[in-house]
DNA sequence: GCCTTATTAGCATAATCTGCCAAAATCATA
DNA sequence: TATGATTTTGGCAGATTATGCTAATAAGGC
């Protein structure tokens, strides 16, 4: 891979698009100090390289009645590769699981689950999580408040 | 507030925009079964109500050299309101902290921190996290792999 | 210093957005 | 069930924005 060298202008573009994914190309161009044409070319290149994965709308969780964040530590019975894959496949089916990480240390997986209320979480546990083959133990931790939620990655370390 | 009643069409719009924030209004309108004009009107209303918070570009963490996810459990010395606020203010200053939750149970806060490598995480710990006033204990858990990362909230429960 | 290559600016065309008005649908009330 | 008021919709027109093309500029190698 030729690494395609992300320069300062690309970094500015990414930082801006991570904040406002719908900024008009003209405005983006002005913000990064280019004319619209080469600016658009760079954006397209970043999209095609896969560096920009996608554009999304972010919805306010409270306003769609999803105020409850639960972090779930899951341990599997045996760490067989096959089991990991089937667990991950099962997790990917559930839309309320917004994040899932394979972890070092005690637990095998850490999930972030979003639900309308505790009843819905209980439902999720009983109907789905405990029914996944190989799940040995589950520990739930509830968030009282979402203090911060960012999707923009910090790009300072790319400065050349 | 009259609650403005989210109907099935709004739900379709939100679901679509959560997947593709840059879809053309014409295409969105067709997808949800409206003509462009009322579709755009609904989108604007959703934006102005704050239900759609913003639009962002999602960047691939690996491609910008940010492969390391760390979950950090932080306990404060005393749970004084003032301390919580100052801790949260300090956390909001750090761009590598993408998520922060006030938790029930043992730890006070759970953070998700994204860094290029372990050295950068050590730097973050020593230079920033341990220097925040009131921090009593820190426990770091490293993710081996990001199995799933979604920004789209599940909206099935809004079905009327 | 010259030539090659890559990147840029500006313009013209095409696509898209968005406000306005009449028509259709919905709803409450009698 | 009929009626009228209110809300929502569809289609059109003007304005904005995106995007491909070409020439000019800048960067890099020899």
From TrEMBL, chains A, B:
<feature type="domain" description="HTH asnC-type">
    <location>
        <begin position="6"/>
        <end position="67"/>
    </location>
</feature>
<dbReference type="GO" id="GO:0043565">
    <property type="term" value="F:sequence-specific DNA binding"/>
</dbReference>
<dbReference type="InterPro" id="IPR036390">
    <property type="entry name" value="WH_DNA-bd_sf"/>
</dbReference>
<dbReference type="GO" id="GO:0005829">
    <property type="term" value="C:cytosol"/>
</dbReference>
<dbReference type="InterPro" id="IPR011008">
    <property type="entry name" value="Dimeric_a/b-barrel"/>
</dbReference>
<dbReference type="GO" id="GO:0006355">
    <property type="term" value="P:regulation of DNA-templated transcription"/>
</dbReference>
<dbReference type="InterPro" id="IPR011991">
    <property type="entry name" value="ArsR-like_HTH"/>
</dbReference>
<dbReference type="InterPro" id="IPR019888">
    <property type="entry name" value="Tscrpt_reg_AsnC-like"/>
</dbReference>
<dbReference type="GO" id="GO:0043200">
    <property type="term" value="P:response to amino acid"/>
</dbReference>
<keyword id="KW-0805">Transcription regulation</keyword>
<dbReference type="InterPro" id="IPR019885">
    <property type="entry name" value="Tscrpt_reg_HTH_AsnC-type_CS"/>
</dbReference>
<dbReference type="Pfam" id="PF13412">
    <property type="entry name" value="HTH_24"/>
</dbReference>
<dbReference type="InterPro" id="IPR000485">
    <property type="entry name" value="AsnC-type_HTH_dom"/>
</dbReference>
<dbReference type="InterPro" id="IPR036388">
    <property type="entry name" value="WH-like_DNA-bd_sf"/>
</dbReference>
<keyword id="KW-0238">DNA-binding</keyword>
<dbReference type="Pfam" id="PF01037">
    <property type="entry name" value="AsnC_trans_reg"/>
</dbReference>
<dbReference type="InterPro" id="IPR019887">
    <property type="entry name" value="Tscrpt_reg_AsnC/Lrp_C"/>
</dbReference>
<protein>
    <submittedName>
        <fullName>AsnC family transcriptional regulator</fullName>
    </submittedName>
</protein>
<keyword id="KW-0804">Transcription</keyword>
């Amino acid at each position: 891979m030729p690494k395609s060298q992300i320069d300062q202008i690309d970094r500015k573009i990414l930082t801006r698009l991570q904040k406002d994914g719908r900024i008009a190309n003209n405005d983006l161009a002005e913000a990064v100090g280019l004319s619209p044409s080469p600016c658009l070319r760079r954006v397209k290149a970043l999209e095609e390289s896969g560096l920009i994965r996608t554009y999304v709308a972010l919805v306010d969780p409270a306003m769609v009645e999803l105020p409850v964040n639960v972090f779930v530590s899951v341990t599997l019975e045996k760490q067989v590769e096959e089991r990991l894959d089937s667990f991950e496949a099962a997790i990917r089916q559930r839309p309320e699981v917004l994040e899932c990480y394979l972890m070092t240390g005690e637990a095998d997986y850490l999930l972030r689950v979003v639900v309308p209320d505790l009843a819905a979480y209980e439902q999720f546990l009983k109907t789905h999580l405990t029914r996944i083959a190989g799940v040995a133990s589950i520990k739930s931790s509830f968030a009282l408040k979402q203090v911060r939620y960012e999707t923009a990655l910090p790009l300072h370390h790319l400065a050349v």
